[in-house]
Amino acid sequence: MRVRKGDLVVVVAGDDASHVARKVLRVLDGGERLLIEGVNRVYKHVKRGHPSSPQGGRLSRELPISASNAMFFCSQCNKGVRVGTRVSETTRERYCKKCKASLGVIGRQKAGA
Ligand SMILES: [Zn+2]
Question: 78's torsion region: left (phi>0), alpha (psi -120 to 50) or beta?
Answer without folding.
Answer: left
